[in-house]
């Protein structure tokens, strides 16, 4: 086992990543920064690609999905792909296209629930906003990232004196009870932040300016951060985020308390695994292409141009396979293998009855292999055997997870991608608690274990594939 210092060092580097990434756009930008520092170059979908062995490249979609790959030194069209798939999005509250809500002397911000969040955990949290803003700058439209890390929003709970049964059945209405407070009307008017001045505008002028769809104070804050004028704002996609940073926790410094563990942990560790696998000589002898595919919109079904259900990954794979026989792509699929890396449910000490008695993953006990005969997960005996062989070489422990027969089962991008491509796939993840809460929990050792497993996967999959005798 690695020393505690090594485990904590890897965990703290992950914390630095997650604290900078309140939205999928920030996650992709941080991944790009690390790839560029490691010698990868950016490609554009609209350009022609001229790829050679040992090239290291990446391409983005919608600035929220990224595919990065390193071409093996012995790669020829028709050879296989070693792929890790993960996702960049997490359940959150998103600012509505028209978000201005004034009620009872408060300026509120209308939000939409994105994904299957545990929404009661968003009450009484100190919230900022982060995301992207489309800005008109002269004759150009620019994509800008913004991250307001100070607490500007809050969804206040109702006092127990006014809702005596709150502890028995608190189930807030997502439309009417989950609207964050930005400011009071009184202070807004005293500070010149809108109020009666908005009423003087005509309906025609209101519709002509995107900024008028939102609270003036919020628009002023965004414009100040970006150094632009309100009329330059064309549109934006803003995610609310907890301003409390991700931290190491527990009396023994063994836990990570953090937002967005599902699934930034795997987006980050797969990136580190790919980069680390390219630092030694192993890439020179690799017949495969090593790849990470980090998709947006997994939490809402993946059916988007930048989601795993799109043709984006297939197009990238086909372009890399160009130059061989007419069936080079199809030949490559048969030699390829994909890890679908998404977080897994650890045994909950207060709800142990929710777990199948023989499948109870624990913290610090290894990466979890997820199995479901009804194909909510894609793991098969063959794909699990391949992973176990690689994990043995990496000295990373594995655990098995299966839901109870009387329990619903979640899913991942694994079934979507494997069905679309016909590619051998296994579903895995790091064990965690509080999945889909605003503050999730996992163990520090998962970061290093995932990084190590992914690095060894890229280095050893081709030789394990060759060992298959069927």
From TrEMBL:
Quaternary structure, from the entry: Tetrahedron-shaped homododecamer built from six homodimers.
Enzyme class: hydrolase
Protein name: Aspartyl aminopeptidase
Required cofactor(s): Zn(2+)
An example Gene Ontology molecular-function term: metallopeptidase activity
Leader sequence residues: none
Pfam families: Peptidase_M18
Entry's EC annotation: 3.4.11.21
Keywords of this entry: Aminopeptidase, Hydrolase, Metal-binding, Metalloprotease, Protease, Zinc
GO BP, one annotated term: proteolysis
Family indicated by similarity: Belongs to the peptidase M18 family.
Any one Gene Ontology cellular component term annotated for this protein: cytoplasm
